[in-house]
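does this look right to u?? pyridoxal-5'-phosphate version
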Amino acid sequence: MSDSKSVRNYVASHVRDMPPSGIRDFFEIVSTMKDVISLGIGEPDFVTPWHVREAAIYSLERGMTSYTSNLGLLKLRQAIAEYLHRTYNVFYRPENEILITVGVSEALDLALRAILEPGDEVIYHEPCYVSYNPIITFAHGKPVAIQTTQETGFRLNRAMVEEKLTDRTKAIMLNFPNNPTGAALDLDDLREIGELAVERDLIVITDDIYGELTYDGRHTAISSLPGLRDRTIYLHGFSKAWAMTGFRLGFAAGPAQLVGAMMKIHQYTMLCAPITSQEAALEALKQPESDIEEMKAEYKQRRNFIYRSFEDMGVPCVKPKGAFYAFPRIDKFGLTSKEFALKLLDEENVAVVPGSAFGACGEGHVRCSYATGMEELKEAMTRIQRFIQRRVPAEVG
Amino acid sequence: MDELLKLLKKNALETPENLSKMLDIPIDEVKTRIAEYEKSGIIRGYRAVVNHDQLDIRQVTAVIEVKVTPEREGGFNHIADRISKFDEVESLYLMSGTFDLLLFVSGRDLKDVAFFVAEKLATIPGVLSTATHFMLRTYKDHGVMMEPEEGYERLKVSP
Ligand SMILES: Cc1ncc(COP(=O)(O)O)c(C=O)c1O
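got this back:
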């Protein structure tokens, strides 16, 4: 093995050909720097509510350190069923329609692997969460991206989906409220997309991880619409609304056939989600409204603040409807999103994520997470303003 | 509680500009509403939350439980009002349970507070008994941790 040329490349081509994540290289640069104010963080700045952490500790004290059933603790599935029914008006049977997973991340992977034959197409919308395209590819599917834009508020409608349909289309993936744009769908659009899925016999995979973090109005789960429950894989988890990212806990809910198929993969690859996290999640569902309400109120104030700040600076930005991201448009400064992010980091020690990391149509934007304390957010916006003020003349000249 | 009031309770120094952005209301409305709160007395004042343990000054704080005889007219109000007029008394609450009034009293030292209790408080007609507890250390005051926990840092960039 001394001569590298003679070493065969053992890596499978669909893995080898996958470009590295745009977030990853940016992370490497930022992590070497000191005193950075980071708006680049895709997780809550809140610590998990104490009563939830305490429940996890208590479960350890009681010696709960074993495997659970493959599907997850029944009492947790029951609590989830009850929560979904109460909150989103859609009922799933705890016995066979809910699967507890290691985050929405695992659930997404299971859903795709459970339904895709090689070459099946999955329609999804960009800019989107960084993993969508790779996990479709890893499951031997073909990712088909819809480009959403600032002009339409990064929303999706029926016509945009229709344009991408082919005979091989198997499923459509939705993520609203959206990472990285903060966009949410109007009920009418959601309905029409749902109708299309019914007409064309598509599976809907919906990543509703930011559902609770909706600031104007209420979130609707697409599976609660007529005819959609039994063709939708509904994914949700505790990472965002409950500030529990490190617990790695999520779940899938859907018709028994699909959840059963996902469970088959899960039982052989993951066995079960960690029991400590399941115990914590059970506690998290005891008083979700009060836990979430407090954090949500603060996110909303920050959303208002960051949006108004960009507006005052003359930087176009769609008002985020949910999640904790703003996605301002910075192309008028004559820099690519990556150059903008690097220069901002270099000159003002503020980290934002280049929009191109979330798909080609994210170019010209940067993602600013407001899951950051108000004081830091204020300072970051002051620095961004200073940064762009130095650049306005370049634009004119 | 009104969101504006909540924000001011957290940080009274927040500028009207920022408050206006955070609440998505015009800056003039922020100013008028604050003025109204001040005028109506809902906002009684603004002050710093100080960690006295960090200062090199002589000061002790005592919490005093007081049992009193309520008066036929006015119940506890008259005696509570009388006690609260002493400068030494920082806060005074009417309580349910085994005593009636709870006082937060501060003085330069133990003797100072002892003098106040023995000479002033206990001699007020209607005061039946007192129990004085001295504070040793402040961990949290008005929702503020005096010694913040060592923060745990998240990854600086994540998807
Ligand atoms: C849209 C979206 N889906 C899924 C995830 C991953 O969630 P989990 O922590 O449940 O694996 C994230 C995390 O950033 C996300 O933004």
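Chain A has two domains: 9-47+290-396, 50-286. idk if thats expected tbh
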